[in-house]
Design brief:
heterodimer, A: mainly beta, 4-stranded antiparallel sheet, 12 strands, B: mainly beta, 7-stranded mixed sheet, 11 strands, about 0% helix, globular
Amino acid sequence: AQSVAQPEDQVNVAEGNPLTVKCTYSVSGNPYLFWYVQYPNRGLQFLLKYITGDNLVKGSYGFEAEFNKSQTSFHLKKPSALVSDSALYFCAVTHLGGGYNKLIFGAGTRLAVHP
Amino acid sequence: ETGVTQSPTHLIKTRGQQVTLRCSSQSGHNTVSWYQQALGQGPQFIFQYYREEENGRGNFPPRFSGLQFPNYSSELNVNALELDDSALYLCAIRETGGSTDTQYFGPGTRLTVL
């Protein structure tokens, strides 16, 4: 069965420092991987995805993620964190099968960026 | 903005009641999915509709049902509400084509069951 793990409930980082939010996955076949962000009382906003191609994927708001097939990881990164990046981040993998697709999400990681 | 809208924003119901949640997008998309996000958890897939037919379902009982209309707007219906149904309900439209296959979410409906 496909699954996603986000090993950290919360990540704390000082403004201006680099940030990493970790994600590992377990899938059969080639994965489609996604990062979404959720601000308080809001829905999920798409950040970036990996389907194929370059292992380093660039997305919205300066975020990027690195796909590592050997480590089955898809960590989210940003070179310089902003206080406004504080939010809940979800990693997800697409399950394809039976004529439909669904996203399987991790439990989420809360990012707190301190001034 | 995704152009996906959901109504209502918030809803309070009591156990045993029925509820209908709605979802629409600015440009019609033929595939819509519904997810339940309980407090402190990641979203869980409820079901997906493609061209007005349910074509995939997660681990949710039959009292969770849906509809998709010819204009591709969608409804989620939940009967016999239970306390554990309290959650944020999200709909997502799917965009495909070329190398893209991405789901975009609406802002959600917060359901509280008392």
